[in-house]
Amino acid sequence: MKRRKPKFKVDNNNAVIYARYSSTNQREASIADQLKACEKYAAAHGLTVINTYCDHAMTGTNDNRPGFQQMIHDAASQMFITVLVWRNDRFARNRYDSIINKRILEQNGVSLVSIMEPNPGGTSGELMNAIYEVLAEKYSKDLSENVLRGMYGNAEKCMANTPPTIGYKIEKHKYVANPLTAPLVQQSFKMFAAGCSIDDVVAFWSSAGIPKSKNALYRMFRNERYRGVYIWDTIRVPDGMPKLIDDTMWNKVHARLAEHHSKPHCKPKSYLLSGKMVCGLCGSPMSGEYATSKDGTKYTYYACSGSRKHICKCRRVRMDLVEQKAVSALYNNLFDPEVIEQLAQSVQYYLEHLTESNPAIAAANEKLKDTDRRLNNIVAAIESGISNEATQKRMQELLQTKKELQQEILSLQPVSSGYSVNEVSRFIQGIAGGNINDRDYATQLVNLFVTQLTLFPEYGIISFDATGQSSDAFTMPHGKRMEECSNLIDSWRSGWDSNPRAADG
After folding, report:
1. Contacts of 34 (CB under 8 A, 6+ apart)
2. CA pair distance 270, 292, nearest whole angstrom
3. What is the pLDDT of residues 278-296, one digit of tens each?
């Protein structure tokens, strides 16, 4: 996609609007409604909207959206300092994408503001952000389950659920052979079975005007759909779609494929505290890096960016060690009843004061009071005998204005204002009791609660309260080689390595 350069003037109050609606739910707030609401918010907060980015009929479960990517790209120009969205789920319904892209905006000095879910910062803000993201992801998962239910029904009837593989097309919701591309697929199998190299097959597709990579062709040769097997998710139906390749040809090709085994690729472990850890000596961010020994062993660390620039003497620290220490400290203190109560009460206090702290709602309430005063004056005039066509018309106008203001105030009310202290407490308590040796669980704890980890040479301070009131310290080995600390991390590492999803983070 060709990137365009924004033609904006730099202004401290510049803002942009991002709007989206989903292809699976055409009845949610339209693009126009989202833009109108965001423009009202911007006017009430003294922001100047210099551009809008829209994605029509695009899912929020990933960030592969043209308008969204253009907005993220333009943020680097630093021509605006705020991105307005109607709700957080317009920005993303995937917590990983939300965290990553918010981080990109923050690095460019741009803040994200959900006008229906305002965030006060501090303790309440961190936890509310997490709750909003969890709810958005849950909604997306629930919606996906409903869609999947229908797709499973289609699959049982061998109906088309996905775009057709090359060689096929869709007619009346069924896969049929494509007379234009099916012969190309059949010729590819014949060439490879006859001993032609994969490069020869690549050249054949190029000559046909449809370039294919080697990997794409290897995937084609392994695709059982060409031998008539309908495949969707866990459903496999032999003879469920037209067979382009007979069994004899299939077996010849796979005999050759046996000679082209590739080594399995191992995904690197993710860095659990990336984006949350800072150096206690210089305040610079600490990010992940790795080193490989002569025998091929890979070692992972966290290193201070100030150290890389030679402005700090902080030494790098083993990833396993600091993550084990940090997550243990968080787990041992987070679920204390007093801590849970403190976090829940701070969230409740924020929710109770959302309405009065929202300038747009306050302005609408003032207009409503003025409208009521004018209505009372007209009623008093009518009661005193002053009643004519003009007074009747004016009363109707004021009644319509009052109705519109009441609807506006209702639309500006936060969607999550019904949370109680007990509900937030149960939300936090429901996360307790997991195994911190499970990397998925540890990742959930860190993403949901940790606001910052400050690491010093001898100890670290992990904060799970943005105000700094809720935090805990843990000690780091001092004066020892990191290899001598293996006894501290063996159980932690073995727990993660035994988890088949650990590598995905």
Report:
1. 17, 19, 20, 21, 85, 86, 90
2. 16
3. 998 898 889 888 888 888 7
